[in-house]
Fold:
Amino acid sequence: MRYWEDFNAGEVSTFGAYHVSEAEIIEFAEAYDPLPFHTDPEAAKTSPYGRLTAPGLLTCAIFMRMLVDHVLADAASMGSPGVDSVRWPRPVLAGDTLSVRQQILSTRVLASRPEMGLVVNRFEVLNQHGELVCEIASNGLFARRDAAGEARP
Amino acid sequence: MRYWEDFNAGEVSTFGAYHVSEAEIIEFAEAYDPLPFHTDPEAAKTSPYGRLTAPGLLTCAIFMRMLVDHVLADAASMGSPGVDSVRWPRPVLAGDTLSVRQQILSTRVLASRPEMGLVVNRFEVLNQHGELVCEIASNGLFARRDAAGEARP
Structure:
């Protein structure tokens, strides 16, 4: 089990290998982003990329799944205060395989809730060519190992 | 069909009425955010909210669906450069009904691509009690009606 103390500024890790199928793109898009260039392979042929592209939120959801499987499932996660930025510099296409690169930029104890600490991240979602398809600035809250929450310098 | 010219700074609109079922929370969470307080009603009883809460990304996906149905499906949407901020101040619970309040903060033609314009938004997702459950700062790109793209003052 990883606590806040186990996340250190400067750490870089990569994880995940998520295959994105055309079926998953269409199913997600029909539910949550039903625009033709996400749902209809024929219509997508006339789009700028010439084929189906994944909804940006599907890329975020796949990122989340990899984060849960490789980090959060074995951590004392207390959720997230939010997301500070999301960019999608390149499209995700059917057949792509995505992975995550996590950089921990800084960590600190919450002044208002010293029993937990913040981990400030920059996440990159990369395709099988190592190209950046999504960049996410999002912070995580984790319980401190010392749940008594003594002040730290 | 709404073009960039049809979005005006200062406009406020509300739309959507999306019922969030326990089944949808569990299905989405099992696919993309499989933590027990999203997937297991029994385990959720011991969580801070005492019941299942929707993954934050499901709330974003439901927001996107309402945005597509009520705005983008009949607009000359050219995508989005990204999301600048997402906050989830309150949980979304099974049985909630969500709606969207859109405020257009400003609009401008893109200097680099004068055939399209940017619409700067603040979106609020509200539950059936009018409580804010998600706040999203995200901008949209739309084609200009005058596709020739003359410079505007």
